[in-house]
Amino acid sequence: MKKSTPPALSNPAAKKLTSAAKIHPVVIYPYHQPNDYTDLAALYELVARLDAKKSRYARPITVLDRKTHYAREKDQPFLEFRKNTIARHSEILDAWCVDTCQMWYSGLGRAFEKGAREDVYWVIPGDFNYGTPVGQEVLGRLHDLPEIILELGEDFCIGEIATDHCNSKQLIDTYGTFALLYNWFPAEAQEIRRFTERPRSEFFAIRHSFLKEVLEQRWYPYEQTVVILLQAVFSQKRISRFFVGNISDLPEGRESLSSAMQQVERTERVLKTLWRERHQPRGGWLERYRLLETQSEQVRRTAITIFQNLLEQ
User: Fold this and answer.
1) CA-CA-CA-CA torsion for 27, 219, 171, 303, nearest 10 degrees?
2) Residue-wise pLDDT tens digits, 251-309
3) How far apart are CA 192 and CA 244, in angstroms?
4) What are phi and psi of 23, to 5 degrees?
5) What value does the mean pLDDT of the chain take?
6) How far is it, in rounded angstroms, from Cα 182 to Cα 95?
């Protein structure tokens, strides 16, 4: 793994590229359209500012799932917001998607086809509480996330939201995501944890050359950030972290037990598939796989027991 360097020690060649390179914002519109547009209005104020800086940013892309559209096709406030705000400041990419990660795939793929060799692609999730004072503060500096890649010559920058040890996202990542990663990819898990405690983050930016590698491999409709981080470690890419702040996409402040279970099950399914893809060409892989699968089941069961004790209180 190539280590990140502070600005003063960054590669001078990387600095020369920043003036020509562009940042491509890809906004992932909320799957469930909120009735209150406060958070989205705040987000699209940022999108409008990005769209106005054409020398620095490519035209933003908003990925909008067709299920979301059809659920609101007779809702006049939604139709007006789509026409007067979303379409005014971004290109709308209407797509049928299985889940959020497939929305990333559609949006990043569209942006990549318009991009150039030194460009950076920036995913902005749309379902956070941007209308709050903390959310407004985050929006004011969120552009630093992709700029880290340009300034330091990084390949991937992951955004990390703030949580305490009892937060449901923290619990899922500690007892689910990382526990499973240590089972299936122990060395890579240690390296990933050096950079982030949020390996499933929806905030990230990625360099053109690395995005090309990622797009050419299998893309998962779930937990794709974990896969990208593993691919970055596999190929010794430069990773850095950006502290997003204390914002949330959880209306009730915490995940339900059912949601937490689903997220752990999805992570396990993805890691098992990825492990098989990397090890099937080698002889004797099945015996090793069966052992890891047994251990993985124990990890998953333990995580669900912990969630049941803590999330149902």
Assistant:
1) 150
2) 555 678 898 999 999 999 999 999 999 998 888 899 999 999 999 999 999 999 998 88
3) 18
4) -100, 130
5) 91
6) 35
**Is beta strand 204-207 parallel, antiparallel or unpaired with respect to 156-161?**
antiparallel
What is the C-alpha to C-alpha distance for residues 217 and 49, in angstroms, rounded to an integer?
34
Tell how strand 156-161 and strand 120-125 pair up.
unpaired
Are 60 and 26 in contact, with CB atoms under 8 Å apart?
yes
| DSSP states of 34-70 | -S--HHHHHHHHHHHHHHH-TTTBPPPEEEEEHHHHH
Q: What is the mean predicted confidence (pLDDT) over 179-197? A: 96
pLDDT at 4 over 60: no
pLDDT in tens, 135-175: 999 999 999 999 999 999 999 999 998 876 677 888 999 99
Q: 300: which residues sit within 8 A by CB, 6+ positions away?
A: 176, 180, 264, 265, 268
CB 139 within 8 A of CB 50: no
Other residues' Cβ atoms within 10 Å of the Cβ of residue 258: 10
**How far is it, in rounded angstroms, from Cα 51 to Cα 139?**
15
Residue corresponding to tokens 């449901």:
168
What residue has token string 């999730």?
A: 125
Alpha helices for the chain (secondary structure H): 12-17, 38-52, 66-71, 76-81, 87-89, 100-114, 133-141, 144-152, 168-172, 179-184, 186-195, 208-215, 224-234, 257-279, 285-311
Look up residue 87 and give its two tokens: 């379409």
Which amino acid, one-letter code, is at 89? H
The share of the chain scoring above pLDDT 90, in percent, equals: 80
239 falls in which pLDDT band (50, 70, 90)?
Answer: very high
